[in-house]
Amino acid sequence: MSYTVHQAKTNLSKLIKEAESGKEVVITRAKKPVAKIVPIAASPKQRVPGMFKGQLWSAPDAFDPLTDEEMRELGFE
Prior knowledge:
Blueprint: E1 2-4, H1 5-10, H2 12-20, E2 25-29, E3 32-37, H3 68-73
Parallel strand pairs: 1-2
Antiparallel strand pairs: 2-3
């Protein structure tokens, strides 16, 4: 559903309720869409430190400096 800026200012609470219910609310100026009201997604679950412990690994040489040949292959001269 689309509304003019004036309609949006007059009916902001109603438009927020529409967005919360999943409807797309577009605000127009001179028949051109300029804004959209959308609900904020539920906040993500709290991160738990160490939850991937033992599941990730890296090669022993992953952080070793690159050789001159590897640097050239990557475009660094």
